[in-house]
């Protein structure tokens, strides 16, 4: 049995890389639904159907625990999945909560009432579907009060990354940051609310300025998963051999993943 990592494309590899470093003795199966990427412009019902199909594929691989390393899926499908679809002996977890816990400096399982936090002005960069869901603001409201969130839907960034066009991706990031700063000139923190965006983290940071703390998810999710598996070791299997599955063209996806991660990655057809 392995742990499943799901994303609409190659963005979730940023999560996989971090959890592999944090948990070197845990096997992972990565599933990229590249044939249907990007998810961020799809309807919630469409995202739910695609996400449940991908999760079922990972369950078929023996992954009783699946991490939705896709903010769009976490925002648009996870709650509905957990309430209506996931059976008692399986687990599906999202990537929003570890990020918000870090932003609000709350520990796992802290269910105390929401309170004021140091950061008051937060920029959220995410896909159009994630922004429209307001899932980030909803989860944040459970933990903090008095935080102003300005959300910027970053159309085109995921497409450019999936196409391997770094120059276009960088130009789009700078444009989206400029658009947000016209509405919130001085954010104190910025949240990269898509697992593709850490591949452009340096561009986000440069456009925002050195005084803005940029929160990215990979290491936060890795720490949260390590804690979860410590408490629920039955969801982690033996071995270290990881696999990479895609609904897209394995050769093309492998090439783009290798380009962005700067190390060889070999995908198989799902």
Would you mind describing this structure in some detail?
This protein has 270 residues and is of the alpha/beta class. The chain folds into 2 domains: 3-94 and 218-269, 3-Layer(aba) Sandwich (Rossmann fold); 97-215, Rossmann fold (3-Layer(aba) Sandwich), CATH 3.40.50. The protein is built from 12 helices and 12 strands. It has helices spanning 13-22, 44-60, 71-76, 78-84, 96-104, 128-133, 135-141, 157-162, 166-183, 201-208, 218-231, 250-261, and strands at 3-7, 28-32, 65-68, 91-93, 115-116, 121-126, 144-145, 148-153, 189-192, 213-215, 243-246, 268-269. The strands form 3 sheets. The chain has a 6-stranded parallel beta sheet, sandwiched between helices. A 4-stranded parallel beta sheet has the order 8-6-9-10, with helices on both faces. Strands 5-7 form a two-stranded parallel ribbon. Strand 1, helix 1 (13-22) and strand 2 form a beta-alpha-beta unit. Helix 5 (96-104) crosses helix 7. The longest helix is centred in the middle third of the chain and has 18 residues, at 166-183. The protein is globular. The model has no long low-confidence stretch (mean pLDDT 92).
Report how far apart the termini are: 17 Å
Q: Could you give the order of strands across the largest sheet? A: 4-3-1-2-11-12
Query: Kindly state the mean pLDDT as a whole number?
Result: 92
Stated plainly, the CATH topology of the largest domain is called Rossmann fold
The overall number of domains is 2
Structural classification: alpha/beta
- CATH architecture descriptor name of the largest domain: 3-Layer(aba) Sandwich
| Global morphology | globular
Q: Which stretches are low in confidence, meaning pLDDT under 50 for 5 or more residues running?
A: none
DSSP helical segment count: 12
């Amino acid at each position: 049995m392995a742990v499943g990592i799901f994303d609409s494309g190659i963005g979730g590899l940023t999560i996989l890389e971090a959890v592999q470093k944090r948990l070197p003795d845990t096997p992972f199966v990565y599933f990229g639904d590249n044939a249907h990427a990007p998810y961020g412009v799809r309807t919630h019902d469409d995202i739910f159907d695609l996400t449940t199909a991908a999760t079922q594929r990972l369950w078929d691989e023996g992954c009783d625990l699946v991490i939705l390393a896709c903010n769009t899926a976490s925002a648009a499908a996870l709650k509905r999945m957990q309430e209506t679809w996931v059976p008692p002996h399986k687990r599906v977890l999202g990537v929003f909560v570890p990020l918000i816990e870090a932003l609000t400096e709350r520990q796992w399982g802290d269910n105390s009432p929401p309170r004021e936090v140091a950061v008051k002005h937060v920029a959220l960069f995410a896909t159009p579907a994630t922004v429209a869901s307001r899932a980030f603001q909803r989860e944040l409201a459970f933990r903090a009060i008095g935080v102003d969130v300005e959300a910027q839907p970053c159309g085109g960034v995921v497409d450019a990354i999936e196409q391997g066009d770094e120059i276009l991706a960088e130009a789009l990031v700078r444009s989206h940051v400029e658009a947000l700063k016209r509405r919130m000139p001085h954010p104190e923190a910025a949240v990269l609310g898509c697992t593709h965006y850490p591949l452009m983290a340096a561009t986000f940071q440069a456009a925002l300025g050195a005084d803005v703390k940029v929160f990215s998810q990979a290491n936060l999710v890795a720490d949260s998963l390590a804690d979860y598996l410590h408490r629920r070791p039955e969801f982690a299997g033996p071995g270290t051999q990881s696999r990479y599955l895609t609904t897209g063209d394995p050769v093309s996806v492998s090439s783009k993943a290798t380009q962005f991660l700067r190390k060889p990655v070999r995908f198989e057809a799902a």
